[in-house]
Amino acid sequence: MSDDPTEPKKKKLRKLQTPLGVFDILPDDQLYYTHIKKVVRHRCRQSGFRRITTPVFEFTDVFQRSIGDATDIVQKEMYTFTDRKDRSFTLKPEGTAGVMRAYLQHGMKELPQPVELYYIEPHFRYDRPQKGRYRQFWQFGYEIIGESDPALDAQVIQLSHKIFEDLGIAHLLELQINSIGCAACREEYITQLQNYYVGKERSLCDRCVGRLEKNPLRLLDCKEEDCQILAQLAPQLKMYLCKDCKEFHGKVLEFLEASEIKYVENDKLVRGLDYYTRTVFEFWDRTQGAQNAVGGGGRYDGLMEMIGGPHTPGLGAAFGMERIILNMKREKIHVPSKDDLHIFVAQLGDDAKKRCLNLIWELRERGVKTVGALGKGSMKAQLRLADKFNVPYTLILGITEVRENTIIIRDMAKGQQRIIPFDTVIDEVVKLIGEKNLDKYSPGELVYS
Q: Residue 203, class by beta-carbon neighbours within 10 Å (0-12 exposed, 13-18 middle, 19+ buried)?
């Protein structure tokens, strides 16, 4: 090290790691994400939904107009930036606004109604990271746009329940449901709610003091203890529902009962987005309640008008995949894996290596998941590597086997091996693995990601 004071000090490199609130999805956890995507795709396609993907970022006013300026998301949680032309963009914090913008932009009103769409995408919110909640998070969701019918509300809830059944966590969750009425219902109720809180501001948390004027309904679902006590004594929204909203909500409940979906009526449930009307619902953890809700949704019959389109009814739901995975792990649910390897190919010598190059790919083309050590490791080192890959069988091709046109098949569990003709090895391996276990792929088929 130099003692020269004029020599510039070498800058210490900062350790590179993920920012707070985001994470790498490593291979073991990818199994969960892949399994959830598969279940969601199957159930949605089965129900007539088609997949849509909206951009990761949109013009900021797509979210400001739809989510609402007074919501926590718009005020505190959006990742917003300007480009070189000083235009404001935002990483999408939720999926519905972008889907409705796409419906309007691409003239989907000309399609048979209702239009049923689903998505599986990452979203972004500057939120306080905690268990199951991150700043980049994955959600799956679905929307039914273009028709207002209580049976559709029940259908979305039933679809969600079926997905949770498939994932093995339905018994952990409890459906909470409410009606927050239409704009006309809420106008009188909000006036009464604000009157109730007059003189009680000192008992409210800082967030709720702000909500009192800008977003009074959110006073009802605050998680702070003092706010909850006040909310329990507040006027009940159901007492102010108009006749149409009462009948609509009653029909939703009837359809749920006909579908044998159990529910809890929760008159304090309002959800955090301004665009909701009438039906709102969430799936809560039976033991931890709203603190560990996996998601929810509701009806948004006025949203299209909020973003500049004609009146178009709609409803939808969205669920956090990280929260769902936590519940699956809690239940020790086994997730099927297609990543397990079938065969390890070990070889010695250049001639063996040449033959193995084609052999490995021929096995893969037949659906056998194959890996080979084509470096310079000893046979002993290669067999140790085969153990680490946890393969059921290893093929061994050395100098003698190349000369005699044979190959060794080693059963790794039993520690037994036998010599067979090299020309028969592929059929022999396929027989050992079994047709149903092969990972077959036809380039002519469409592959869903």
A: middle
